[in-house]
């Protein structure tokens, strides 16, 4: 067990030089380096992070060496050790202007936030497997997956409150800090436009009536996203009479996770034979100053669809709550055209 972390709950923190480079990556001024932690600062850093650091599964499918030389087909698989874990993603995110998945992005973002004096807890969430559906009426019901998502809680010494932030969920990402509360009604906020709304509620893991309840259980928090008919803006407070329904994103417990456990979650997500992330290609981020519009590139091997990744825009004021993609482009799943596109449109450095 020589590789087992000697201090499993160590909290990496970026140096001043590293934090300044991270601010440059986020297109934010270096003058923020000496800012005291606050909700305003957290909100600014969080949104800029979502605008410039994409969720990115490409390291799972393309070893770095494959990007060099002649153009070759990209095959969905796992490059095993190619996806960085934890704060080791710093160089990929900051110097190569690329992204990664949650166990890399959120861990690195946590180290960045600690530079400013934020107290950051790294947690793991259980993802909802029927995203966008109403679990009260959909046949899937409350269909939960495994603990495959890292998320963050942020606080600071002068604040009585703590806030959920998540730098790597992807489409449907909450882009504002949301406060933890044990109020039975939870905390509900609007997103970056009136067609986005989120709710964080303290509760035990919701299960369908036909599911066996656990023998031992404790309450945690569930993050929900609100869905309403296209073109229907959300208005607070959202009540039982408001149009639409709440659909879960993930559920988590207030239990800090040690580094070794993240190694296990990382393996299950990136290199295990049941790893879900190896089955699709996703690069996505919020478009800066767009009111929440998101540009995404997606590909999964489906018969009859060809070997091309779809690039499209969703959300924002223009989307008016629609999940339909617009401004569609297609990119061949080969390293040559893909490298050119990612360099030009997402700012990747190879």
TrEMBL record:
<dbReference type="InterPro" id="IPR001447">
    <property type="entry name" value="Arylamine_N-AcTrfase"/>
</dbReference>
<comment type="similarity">
    <text>Belongs to the arylamine N-acetyltransferase family.</text>
</comment>
<dbReference type="GO" id="GO:0016407">
    <property type="term" value="F:acetyltransferase activity"/>
</dbReference>
<protein>
    <submittedName>
        <fullName>Peptidase-S9 domain-containing protein</fullName>
    </submittedName>
</protein>
<dbReference type="Pfam" id="PF00797">
    <property type="entry name" value="Acetyltransf_2"/>
</dbReference>
<dbReference type="InterPro" id="IPR053710">
    <property type="entry name" value="Arylamine_NAT_domain_sf"/>
</dbReference>
<dbReference type="InterPro" id="IPR038765">
    <property type="entry name" value="Papain-like_cys_pep_sf"/>
</dbReference>
